[in-house]
Specification:
Blueprint (H helix, E strand, L loop, with lengths): L2 H24 L7 H8 L1
Helix pairs in contact: 1-2
């Protein structure tokens, strides 16, 4: 796997982990957008 692909995969993994964490903390379903989660969390 080249470095660019590895970085992309790592970014997606971190993004999904943050998304899952915020959804659990805010008790939100998956239909709520990621940007809305950030607005609520901050």
């Amino acid at each position: 796997m080249d470095n660019k692909s590895k970085n992309s995969n790592e970014f997606i993994t971190i993004y999904n982990e943050l998304d899952d964490y915020m959804r659990r903390e805010l008790n939100q379903d998956h239909w709520v957008s990621h940007s809305e989660l950030i607005r609520k969390y901050v």
